[in-house]
Write a structure and sequence with these properties.
Blueprint lengths: L1 E4 L7 H9 L7 H6 L25 H13 L3 H4 L9 H16 L24 E9 L2 E10 L7 E4 L1 H12 L11 H5 L1 E2 L2 E2 H37 L5 H25 L3 H40 L6 H26 L5 H17 L1 H16 L7 E4 L2 E8 L3 E6 L4 E5 H4 L4 E3 L6 E9 L5 H17 L9 E7 L4 E9 L4 H21 L21 H13 L9 H6 L2
Parallel strand pairs: 1-2
Antiparallel strand pairs: 2-3, 3-4, 5-6, 7-8, 7-11, 8-9, 9-10, 12-14, 13-14
Helix pairs in contact: 3-5, 5-6, 8-9, 9-10, 10-11, 15-16
Length: 569
């Protein structure tokens, strides 16, 4: 709403000249009004769906803006339609005076006016009255009211109240003539697209002056930004600094348009410049935030590379992109809101669209978050040799959707990240040492002294080798096998590279073989020993003795159960 501000009292020749030069965008408002409301000031307000008023007087906002547009076009016959007065020469004069008073109020906030047919029901006024603002003068204050009236059988409309129009001449007396009084008559009479020529000239000069001052301000203030950017990026060149130059310049341009709003001689002009300034400022700040995020992401990428965590660059790139998309989306919504648009439907659509996308792309999102988890937790890394539920291979790439593995058959295995994040993985590359565990079978011809000599020498071998973990090393005779003595050699080799492990294992096994051979022993082969002998003749005396024992028992059968054994004599 219009706030408590005093009317403009323009004094001084320099002030008038400055107002003429910086009077930029108000020149375009009558044209925008003629084009049917292409500006943010003429966005559609809530109308009566049954029988809308053709002049937009259904709402307080539509009444005030419609009056100002008609007055700026010097169409006072139409402007009178917004007054609660009968058409007459006196009504035309009241319209001219009301225009001058409204244009003289600083800080006019047209967007604060209600856009609903009922008006603002939360104020302390009757439902049929709406306060537009308060004008302060030397003699007191003047309330500007709208009244909701009904003419004949038409729906109710909002009009400037008769009480306000009765007090307007007193307020008009305190408003000094605007700069238009100092404009040559020919510039006021010449019109281009229904707009006076002097307004086009003022718009061109005002825009040009804002652009020049913004460029000068960028050159003056940017050296102060250079030191901050170099400290942030740790780089001495101006590559990133130049990336911030245009957003910084646009911020200054938006401030320039805000200054134009302060000195604009019309209420529509001030409102239009405020909206343009707000839209440009939001766009410039969003642009600046996106460029600063590029600098932060670049710095973080350098840190990850130096720390040897290059695999996390994909996650950093993903979050950087998501942040820029979120910043651009938020900036777009704020721009629409700053321009006077209704963002409620947009936010509802974004929320509903997000739910639909989440349901439709459930598997894709599962793989996406699975990839983020894999890259963040690092259970596997590019170049690792792993086992994936029966498949063995080297990880060649971890993307945001799937991981690619080069198998031992030299084929490419693609595993979705959603499955990869839940399956059991065995990473051979991440082990800190290798298991050396072998069982050696020696021939049964090996004597105890040979066995002791072999055990002692193998233990000395493990104890003296620099790559053997002495804490868990052991060499023991553990079994008399079916065809050989079994020795167990158990230890860990302090190696991390598989190739080095194979070399050291080969060295130890060959040395153990030398020890066995030097002791006169040998490795056993799986074998079976067969003993051959002639059958002896049957001992007839023993047969006869068995028969006698049986006869002595009276022909009883030999007991089988345990009870029978205990009871036998």
């Amino acid at each position: 709403m219009f706030s408590h501000y005093r009317p403009i009292k323009t004094t001084g020749r320099q002030t008038r000249i400055l107002a003429l030069l910086l009077f930029a965008f108000p020149a375009t408002e009558p044209l925008l009004g003629q084009l049917g409301g292409l500006s943010s000031l003429s966005q559609p307000a809530a109308k009566n769906p049954e029988n809308p008023d053709p002049l937009g007087r259904d709402t307080p906002y539509g009444c005030v803006v419609g009056f100002l547009k008609a007055a700026e076009l010097d169409d006072y016959n139409r402007a009178v339609e917004y007054l609660d007065m009968k058409p007459s020469p006196q009504a035309l004069e009241r319209a001219r005076q009301l225009r001058a008073v409204l244009n003289a109020i600083r800080g006019a906030g047209l967007d604060a006016l209600s856009r609903t047919p009922e008006g603002d029901l939360g104020d302390d006024l009757p439902p049929t009255r709406e306060r537009v603002g308060i004008v302060a003068s030397d003699t007191g204050t003047l309330d500007l009211f709208l009244d909701r009236v009904r003419r004949n059988d038409t729906p109710p409309i909002w009009l400037f109240s008769s009480k306000t129009l009765h007090d307007i001449p007193a307020a008009f007396e305190e408003v000094e003539p605007g700069f238009e009084a100092y404009i040559p008559q020919n510039l006021r009479d010449i019109r281009i697209l229904s707009i006076p020529a002097y307004r086009w000239l003022g718009a061109i000069l005002g825009i040009g002056l804002v652009l020049v001052l913004a460029s000068l301000g960028t050159r003056i203030l940017f050296p102060l930004v250079r030191r901050l950017v170099r400290r942030l990026t740790l780089e001495q060149d101006d590559l990133w600094l130049n990336a911030l130059r245009k957003p910084f310049w646009l911020i200054l341009v938006s401030l320039g348009f805000r200054a134009l709003a302060e000195i604009s001689p019309t209420a529509l002009g001030r409102q239009f410049c405020i909206k343009v300034s707000a839209v440009m400022a939001v766009f410039a700040v969003t642009w600046m935030v996106v460029r600063l995020s590029d600098i932060v992401a670049h710095r973080a990428a350098n840190r990850l590379t130096n720390a040897g965590a290059a695999s996390k660059l994909a996650v950093l790139s993903l979050f950087h992109r998501l942040f820029k998309i979120a910043a651009a989306t938020a900036g777009g919504v704020v721009v629409i809101y700053a321009g006077g648009g209704d963002v409620t439907a947009i936010l509802a659509g974004v929320g509903l669209g997000g739910i639909v996308i989440a349901l439709a792309a459930q598997k894709t999102l599962e793989n996406l978050f699975g990839g983020v988890a894999l890259i963040s937790d690092e259970p596997i890394r590019v170049g690792d040799f792993c086992r994936f539920e029966g498949k063995v291979g080297i990880v060649e790439d971890i993307g945001l959707r799937s991981a690619r593995v080069r198998t031992l058959d030299r084929t490419i295995l693609s595993i979705p990240n959603g499955q990869l994040s839940t399956m059991t993985l065995e990473n051979f590359t991440l082990r800190d040492k290798f298991l050396f565990h072998h069982k050696i079978d020696l021939r049964y011809e090996t004597t105890p002294d040979q066995m002791r000599c072999i055990l002692i020498q193998i233990r000395e071998l493990l104890r003296s080798h620099p790559k053997v973990d002495q804490q868990d090393a052991r060499v023991r005779l553990i079994a008399f096998g079916a065809s050989a003595f079994t020795l167990e050699v158990f230890t860990y080799l302090l190696l991390v590279e598989h190739q080095h492990f194979l070399e050291t294992q080969e060295e130890l096994l060959l040395t153990i073989l030398d020890i066995v051979v030097a002791a006169g022993g040998g490795l056993a082969f799986p074998s079976t020993t067969m003993y051959m002998a002639r059958d002896k003749p049957q001992d007839l005396a023993a047969v006869e003795q068995a028969a006698d024992r049986l006869r002595q028992r009276g022909g009883q059968v030999l007991p089988v159960a345990a009870g029978d054994l205990n009871g036998a004599s």
